[in-house]
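Query structure, 595 tokens:
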């Protein structure tokens, strides 16, 4: 029998006052969220002595030689999501253990240079539960991997609405201005997501007697449609939506709204339970210099620290420096390259989980070159969140920046996280004319067959259910499902982590090739026309199977074989529309083994 204490979800008192409990089951499973609550000074969000700047909680978790020091946060009464409390004496830390066995923790609450409280304890971590993926970590030059299963992660997500958190059910949430730029996205009121109330499942946790069902139901719907990533701003003061910030109001940048942030956490927990990546976009182009004039000074560090402390523990986190971050020819100020490097360095030094850090910027090759080129070689920048004004350039842009970053020894992961033009994005399912077929072929498959790690779809300013006013995600139901088909094809049939873009092996500019030369090839026929593949220099016979990217499903096998000795072979799709051909050398013509 193991003897240890049970700190999970309990209000902890100093160690000297605690009696160890004999317990036969683990306190928590590997990768399971822990929230430890500690007593500290009684204070409030509005206290004259600001609790967010006067105090600092850090807790070090240790398992033998492995340790992580995790920032904590002021939690009011410890149950603020439900109570709406603004005051109390509870301080908390959130943690997900990444190893089984005995853990200890040691925490300090400091006021300036003086330690005013000390906490310690121990707990036992059991094996990961069946189906547990663990955290997303960098495990490949081009892809993230789940730490527990070692499976690779491909993203098929939604980019809209960017003001996802401008939600009426959150405490302290309002629009600070109803002034919108002419011709661009506009919205009235806060989000309610009322069309998704009926999608809310029994597993969701609400707050304040049933609030949150619209947003939680929307996430349930999206997960069921194959979406595995959501993009959202955490600070849009003076931006497009003007309705999202973590503070008590839009004019104060050093006091946080504890109950609102606890309610955000309920939503993030729910998305996490559905296997979704949380894509935190830290500011907009309009406000990237709002804090400290763009420097990583006291305001910005306080903001980042609160986000890391409260949300950094989640399994799948992306920290994005900001929407359209960097120089442009129309705003009054922006973060320059040095300031971007400082933000990247801050996360590398202060996020104990080393979550994925990306940069999103303005569209067009000139803008990409101006902003990305000075950062080439930065080992702490995980990847690029590409915005493409021309969505049909996805294959070339993805391949270009994969190659350029690899050439300097610091490869970046590439995802397409916004497709233009700004006024259109991806059309709703019922729009006429409709660009979904072209975006599926040339953006989604184009990017992934260049080695990209996935997409998130942006809903244009002049579309119904756009980037600010979306209430019903069903407007693009068809697009989520064919996006998921692409992901499933890669996961089920390809050793994609061993493959690379090889358009040189096919002849058409609108067909794409992805290959592990001599073993497996994917050729995408974007518009249903015959494609060719050059097998020169390889040996043996190859099976040819077909996949319908519009409908998904099983591979279609007509018994086709081609021989390497024939050199360039022709691949004729079995029907109209875009098709995927999968060629595998007969000796290895089987599903790849475990990843």
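Result returned for the query:
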């Amino acid at each position: 029998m193991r003897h240890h204490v049970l700190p999970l979800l309990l209000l902890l008192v100093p160690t000297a006052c605690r009696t160890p409990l004999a317990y036969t089951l683990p306190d928590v499973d590997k990768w399971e969220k822990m929230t430890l609550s500690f007593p500290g000074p009684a204070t409030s969000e509005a206290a004259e002595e600001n609790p967010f700047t006067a105090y600092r909680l850090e807790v070090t978790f240790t398992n033998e030689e492995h340790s992580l020091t995790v920032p904590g946060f002021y939690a009011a009464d410890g149950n603020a999501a439900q109570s709406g409390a603004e005051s109390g004496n509870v301080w908390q830390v959130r943690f997900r253990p990444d190893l089984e066995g005995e853990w200890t923790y040691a925490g300090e609450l400091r006021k300036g240079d003086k330690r005013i409280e000390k906490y310690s304890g121990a707990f036992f971590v059991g094996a990961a539960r069946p189906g547990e993926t663990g955290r997303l970590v960098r495990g490949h030059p081009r892809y993230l991997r789940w730490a527990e299963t070692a499976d690779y992660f491909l993203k098929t997500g939604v980019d809209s609405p960017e003001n996802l958190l401008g939600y009426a059910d959150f405490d302290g949430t309002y629009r600070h201005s109803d002034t919108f730029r002419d011709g661009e996205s506009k919205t009235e009121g806060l989000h309610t997501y009322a069309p998704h109330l009926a999608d809310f499942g029994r597993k969701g946790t609400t707050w304040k007697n049933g609030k949150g069902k619209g947003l939680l139901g929307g996430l349930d719907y999206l997960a069921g449609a194959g979406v595995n990533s959501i993009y959202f701003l955490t600070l849009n003061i003076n931006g497009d939506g003007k309705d999202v910030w973590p503070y008590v109001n839009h004019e104060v940048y050093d006091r946080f709204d504890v109950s609102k942030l606890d309610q955000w956490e309920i939503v993030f927990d729910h998305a996490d339970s559905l296997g979704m990546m949380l894509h935190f976009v830290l500011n907009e182009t309009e406000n990237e210099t709002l804090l400290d004039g763009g420097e990583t000074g006291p305001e910005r560090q306080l903001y980042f620290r609160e986000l890391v402390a409260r949300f950094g523990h989640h399994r799948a986190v992306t920290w994005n420096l900001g929407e359209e971050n960097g120089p442009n020819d129309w705003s009054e100020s922006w973060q320059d390259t040095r300031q971007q490097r400082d933000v990247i360095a801050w996360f590398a030094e202060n996020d104990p989980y080393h979550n994925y850090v990306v940069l999103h910027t303005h569209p067009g090759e000139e803008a990409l070159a101006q902003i990305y080129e000075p950062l080439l070689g930065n080992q702490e920048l995980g990847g690029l969140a590409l915005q493409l004004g021309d969505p049909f350039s996805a294959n070339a842009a993805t391949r270009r920046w994969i190659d350029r970053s690899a050439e300097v020894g610091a490869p970046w992961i590439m995802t397409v996280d916004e497709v233009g033009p700004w006024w259109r994005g991806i059309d709703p399912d019922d729009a006429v004319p409709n660009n979904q077929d072209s975006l599926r072929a040339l953006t989604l498959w184009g990017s992934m067959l260049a080695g990209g790690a996935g997409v998130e779809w942006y809903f244009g300013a002049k579309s119904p259910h756009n980037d600010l006013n979306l209430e019903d995600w069903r407007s693009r139901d068809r697009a989520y499902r064919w996006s998921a088909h692409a992901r499933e094809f890669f996961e089920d049939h390809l050793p994609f982590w061993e493959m690379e873009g090889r358009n040189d092996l096919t002849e058409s500019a609108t067909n794409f090739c992805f290959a592990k030369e001599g073993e497996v090839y994917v050729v995408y026929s974007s518009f249903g026309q015959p494609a060719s593949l050059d097998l020169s220099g390889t040996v043996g016979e190859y099976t040819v199977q077909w996949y319908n990217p519009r409908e998904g499903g099983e591979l279609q096998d007509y018994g086709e074989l081609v021989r390497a000795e024939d050199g360039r072979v022709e691949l004729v799709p079995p029907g109209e529309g875009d098709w995927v051909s999968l060629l595998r050398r007969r000796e290895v013509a089987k599903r790849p083994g475990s990843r």
